[in-house]
Design the sequence.
């Protein structure tokens, strides 16, 4: 008997192998249609869809269950404008001075540049913050374990959930992103992780013609 409280595993569902295949194929077919979109429509999206996607993200596993993330959902025009202006300053500096030749070459097939109109067009910007520490009400700091891995997993679930709901996303990482703490009033103990631009794609949205590695390149199987 353990000396910590437990509950029976909630609603674990096992499927016969054929049904497992059908379910995983359906899931793969769905996620393989996800693409990063850089042209958004300004059509509104009901806020409860975003809230449920965030609830899904918050189910992510995390180091010692410390849930080291915070999401700020921005829909106000004034704040989106401030974020766009600050991001474009950093992006211009990046493209004109900071990026190495190698980095610019890697970005070339994506056709990205320092103009970020989608930061104002899309109905939602979800700023993801990573908490290296929790700060207790008495000011004491509690260390978080694996905050980067945990926040990455939560963000992956969030992107998948938004896609599942029929929305498009752009994972945006202006570098550095400290301006997000200032504009959104988040404490210095939180590190901006990325900015998820979310909404419907523009009617004429196009995406780069890129491919994925093949299974033999990205996975190995050890059977003995
Ligand atoms: C951590 C991370 C940071 C990214 N940052 C940017 C970014 O700042 N700007 C951008 O246009 N795309 C960004 N992307 C999107 C990638 O370029 C995109 O996922 C990749 O090219 C694959 O395309 P796909 O998502 O359409 O499959 C980022 C993706 C990740 C995972």
Sequence:
């Amino acid at each position: 008997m353990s000396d910590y409280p437990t509950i029976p595993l909630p609603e674990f569902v096992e499927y016969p192998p054929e049904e497992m295949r059908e379910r995983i194929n359906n899931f793969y077919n769905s996620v393989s249609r996800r693409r990063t979109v850089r042209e958004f429509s300004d059509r509104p999206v009901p806020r409860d869809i975003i809230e449920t996607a965030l609830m899904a993200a918050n189910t992510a596993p995390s180091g010692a269950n410390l849930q080291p993330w915070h999401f700020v959902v921005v829909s106000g025009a004034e704040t989106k404008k401030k974020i766009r202006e600050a991001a474009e300053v950093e992006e211009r500096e990046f493209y004109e001075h900071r990026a190495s030749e190698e980095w610019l070459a890697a970005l070339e097939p994506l056709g990205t540049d320092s103009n970020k109109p989608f930061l104002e067009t899309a109905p939602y910007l979800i700023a993801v913050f990573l908490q290296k520490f929790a700060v207790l009400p008495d000011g004491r700091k509690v260390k978080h374990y694996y905050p980067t891995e945990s926040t990455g997993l939560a963000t992956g679930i969030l992107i998948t959930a938004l896609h599942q709901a029929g929305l498009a996303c752009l994972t945006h990482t202006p570098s550095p992103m400290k301006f997000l703490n200032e504009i959104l009033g988040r404490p210095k103990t939180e590190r901006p992780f990325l900015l998820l631009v979310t909404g419907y794609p523009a009617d004429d949205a196009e995406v780069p013609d890129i491919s994925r590695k093949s299974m033999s390149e990205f996975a190995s199987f050890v059977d003995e």
In short: Strands lie at 69-74, 124-131, 133-135, 141-143, 168-172, 190-199.
